[in-house]
Each structure stands twice: as structure tokens, then as C-alpha cells.
Amino acid sequence: MAPIKISYVVSFSSQDPKYPAENLLSEDGVQPWLGCPKDHSRQLSVELQLERASPIGSVDVGNYGCAFLQIEVGRSSWPCDQPYLTLVPTVTLMTPADSKLDQNRCGVRMFKEADFSELAVGQKWDRVRLTCSQPFSPCSRFGLSFIRLRTPQEQEPDPPRPSLDALFPPVSLTLPIPRRSREEEQLRSCLGKLEGEAWSPAHLSRSARMVLLAARNQALRP
């Protein structure tokens, strides 16, 4: 899963000059993006331009006091009046009780493809819009500390299938030639002496060859 770089901020509804929307471009996430202290609408939105159009596989968001968050996606080539598609429907980042007590403000939410709307999965996007709100605590400051986007995880190629030769190795049908036993050699030597020093079985008499064959057959028995 490769990181998707954010190029610049296209627009925003409100920002504190000390904590501008451009803080979302920082990779360290030290300084948050907060709304203007004079803005009492209790809702913020920011639109970000990605470095290139890419399918989105995951989104990590650092909260800073927001109760609700919605993420939408679009393309820079679209007309200005074309609505964006919902990537992540409105989710709760803080409960009403936590919002009123001003606790658990800085959690992190991680969204994956299973959390995305089906129409947005697998498409390439180069615009992301974040809309957050905090209706339960009218006096608290809120915004986002960071956003991280990544491409989908690449599918690993299937392992190579073994060849038929590996599954079924060739079987040699050549039978081993049994060595002549020591007894057979001794018998041949004796028969050769009796037959007048014949040097090969062809020179032995028929009876001598029969004795030699019988001895050989006996040696081949298991």
C-alpha cells in the first residue's frame, strides 16, 4: 500500500490563522487544522488536491475534537456543480458525553475499503473533501490533526505451478544387470580347468554350460 501525497488545499470553509488548513499537508501532524474562533457554525469542511488520481485503499484520520466526520471524493476535471461521491459515510468520532466533558478529543480512526461506499471503491480520485462537526459542545475548538491516504494493497502473483515432469518424474524401466556371484566365477574356473582351460562359456561343453546356467539361475533367486 503506497502513500498518496496531498499537493495543496483547494478550499476550506473556515480556519484559524494560527492553525490553518495547510497543516493537513504536514506529514508529522503536530499542528492541527482548526476553525476560526469567530465561526459559530459548528461545522467545518476542507477540500484537498491529491498529487495524482489514484484508487484509495485506506484513510487514517487524526481527530481534534470533532464529533462527526464524513469523507467524499471527486475529480478535478468535474464541473464545479457536480456533487462528490461519498467515500466514508458520516461516522462518530466522539460521543455526546465525551464532547460535553471535552475528553477523548484526539483519537485516530482508520478506514479501509470495507468501510467505503461501493460506488467509490476501485475508482481513481484526485480530490478529497472532509466535513466535520461538533454540535454537542458549543464552546470547544475542533478540527483535524492529520489525514493519511494509501493506495489499495497490491495482489501478490500466484506462485508458479510445478511442471508435469516435477509431479511425475520419468521412471527408468532399465533393470539392473546382476553381478555374477563369486560362486559362479569359482564354478566357471573349475569347469574351465576340467574342460581344458576354455576361456569363454562358448568353448565349454554342453554339460558344463548346463551346470553353469543352473548355478546362475540359483544365484538370481530372491
From TrEMBL:
Residues 1-149 form the DNA-repair protein Xrcc1 N-terminal domain. One of its GO terms (biological process) is base-excision repair. GO terms for cellular component: nucleus. InterPro entries: Galactose-bd-like_sf, Xrcc1_N. GO terms for molecular function: damaged DNA binding. It comes from the Eukaryota. This is XRCC1 protein. It comes from Sylvietta virens. The lineage of its organism: Eukaryota, Metazoa, Chordata, Craniata, Vertebrata.
